[in-house]
Design brief:
- By secondary structure, the protein is α/β, with parallel strands linked by helices.
- The protein has 2 domains: 263 residues, Rossmann fold (3-Layer(aba) Sandwich); 184 residues, Rossmann fold.
- It has 20 helices and 18 strands.
Length: 478
């Protein structure tokens, strides 16, 4: 099959979140199954010269965006069996940040028009156009309008993936004709209209041939108003074409036995002494006391409310009454940054707050921590808990979204499990589970090692998930 994968960010070229990881690895898994895969993304200023020097310029043309005719250049790079097309327009994409600009609706409407018109200009007919999140949500809608005007799209079907329903692309209805370039007939309850606004994600859910989310549990949660951010009715109405498929990771990229910058390597067959060496290196790096027998709890995350950090701040002092160490890496909302700065002052040598983002330090944390804490209120899939398990670090998570699908709770009767879980949005429930984990760490090293091995050997590759996507592609394309 011919698959065009459209995303607003793709690793390793440019990344702000998990979407980039998916867009960087899923197409390679699809190509490995023998399909012809092309990925299209904007040519942002942040894409480095190391990648630009490998690109080939293909052609330029004008994209139709409402009353505008806008320049579009296409550059190509082939990597890992996948062809990447970069959409060049410096007016829209030569900016310091990917998102958060006053004209984001126009920028990504332009990108969506470029996705639709590039197959004609390069004379390539995709069977599937796979779009992701609100930035490409207009593509399934444009496909309704342009399928018969562009011969290369005559047989194309659209798949739309919701990575995070919180960000929907909602704008005033004045953008419909002047910015997006669609007539008023699209402003109805069965397409883009949403409480007198235009909602791009809603339009994609209605227009796409199939809709996926990034974990089975998240797909079910989106049917509930608590998780759906206003779109529960739409999700339930369209439930027959919605499916949750768990994200995977590049297993070779997260391999504790592979040579790396870590203090030591280790494997599922010989976890020690390598993991203890990594723990000591982490403790030294962040200013914690080097104590091998004190459980070290870590967080690597954006410090945001929906990540559950209020649960941590609610019981922080009770947590620190335990014989533990804590390291937190990330930036975000000021109240959490202040709380963790204060904790670092109150608990020197036991609590480390690194209010920044550092890829090398995050790698040290995954490898060196004993427990990885993710008390998320909502978590569509989550990759951090999967990465942590690959390095023998046991996750403590709330049972939501992909956390529930990947972290099986410890069973004291048969010793099975991959981590520790709790259900309610309650800091004291989280604290109870942390106490259980700390107690097990000290009293049952055998059960602890068994769980480490269970997580390290679990198959989190894209192989199974890619096959589920292929099944969907084949089903909707006949």
């Amino acid at each position: 099959m011919k698959i065009l994968f459209a995303a607003s960010e793709v690793a390793p070229f440019i990344k702000t979140g998990g979407l980039a990881d998916v867009a960087g690895s899923l197409p390679q898994a699809l190509a490995a199954e023998g399909h012809e895969v092309k990925v299209i993304l904007p040519l942002y200023e942040g894409i480095g010269e190391n990648w630009r020097s490998q690109m080939t310029f293909l052609k330029y043309f004008d994209v139709s965006l409402s009353w505008r005719k806008v320049y579009c250049g296409i550059f190509q790079l082939v990597r890992g069996g996948v062809t990447f097309w970069f959409v060049d327009n410096e007016y829209y994409f030569k900016r310091n940040q990917l998102y958060g600009h006053f004209d984001d609706c126009e920028r990504f409407a332009y990108f969506s028009r470029a996705i639709i018109e590039t197959p004609r200009e390069l004379d390539w007919a995709p069977d599937i156009i796979h779009c992701n999140d609100w930035q490409t949500a207009l593509v399934p809608v444009y496909l309704l309008e342009d399928r018969y005007a562009i011969p290369q799209l005559a047989n194309a079907k659209s798949v739309y993936t919701i990575h995070n329903i919180e960000y929907q692309g909602r704008y005033g209805d004045q953008v419909l004709e002047d910015v997006i370039g669609l007539d008023r007939s699209y402003f109805n309850e069965n397409m883009l209209a949403f409480y007198n606004d235009v909602n791009l994600m809603k339009g994609a859910i209605m227009a796409a041939n199939y809709v996926t989310t990034v974990s089975p549990t998240y797909a079910e949660e989106l049917r509930l108003p608590f998780y759906a951010h206003g779109l529960a009715g739409v999700i339930n109405e369209q439930a027959g074409k919605i499916q949750g498929i768990l994200n995977g990771i590049d297993m070779s990229l997260y391999d504790p036995s592979a040579p790396s910058d870590l203090a030591a390597t280790f494997s599922v067959d010989q976890i020690e002494p390598g993991k203890s060496v990594c723990k000591a290196a982490l403790q030294q790096a962040v200013g914690l006391e080097v104590k091998p027998d004190v459980p070290l709890i870590a967080c690597v995350s954006r410090l945001a409310g929906h990540k559950g950090f209020s649960l941590i701040t609610d019981v922080l002092d009770q947590m620190m009454d335990l014989d533990i160490q804590v390291v937190i890496l990330g930036t975000g909302e000021w109240q959490y940054e202040d709380a963790f700065r204060s904790a670092q002052e109150r608990y020197p040598g036991r609590f480390a707050a690194r209010l920044t983002y550092s890829a090398p330090l995050s790698a040290m944390i995954y490898a060196g921590a004993d427990l990885f804490l993710m008390p998320s209120i909502a978590e569509p899939c989550g990759l951090s808990q999967i990465i942590a398990m690959r390095y023998g670090t046991l996750p403590v998570v709330r049972e939501t979204g992909g956390l529930k699908d990947t972290v099986f709770p410890y069973n004291q009767f048969d010793g099975t499990g991959r981590g520790f879980t709790f259900t309610n949005v309650n800091g004291f429930d989280m604290l109870w589970v942390i106490r259980e984990a700390v107690d097990l760490y000290h009293t049952n090293k055998g059960a602890w090692a068994t769980m480490q091995k269970e997580g390290m050997t679990a198959d989190f590759s894209w192989t199974n998930s890619a096959q589920q996507y292929i099944d969907i592609y084949q089903r909707i394309s006949g």
